[in-house]
Amino acid sequence: MIDSDAMIAFRTGWPRHFGASPRYAEAMTSTGDSIEEAIRDGDTLLLDRSIRRVVDEGIYVVPFYASALVKRLQHCMRVVIARTGNNPLFIE
Q: Which of 61, 70, 74, 81 has the most crowded CB, counting CB atoms within 10 A?
């Protein structure tokens, strides 16, 4: 899950360092531990809002009601599969 109430300021050139356009970049703070090891509680996430669909296996932010979830997703033969999180304490 991500904390949408937190505001993080960054220089406009910072997202380019990670391959994202500053125009579509947004930084957020993660909360929770369902994908621990890859992303820890309190980590800063750089989101690229220009990505609108699952194009490859990776970690994506998925809108969920008034919040958002951080999940590992995989695109496989026209179907998007939610992969089990990294944290062995969670079974999805």
A: 70
Of the candidates 40, 28, 33, 23, the one whose C-alpha atom is nearest the C-alpha of residue 4 is: 28
On the CB side of 17, CA atoms within 13 Å amount to 7
Output the pTM of the full model: 0.69
Return the structure tokens found at 60. 């994506």
Strand pairing of 58-64 and 44-48?
A: unpaired
**CB of 59 within 8 A of CB of 51?**
no
Residues 36-69: pLDDT tens digits? 778 888 888 888 888 888 878 888 888 888 888 8
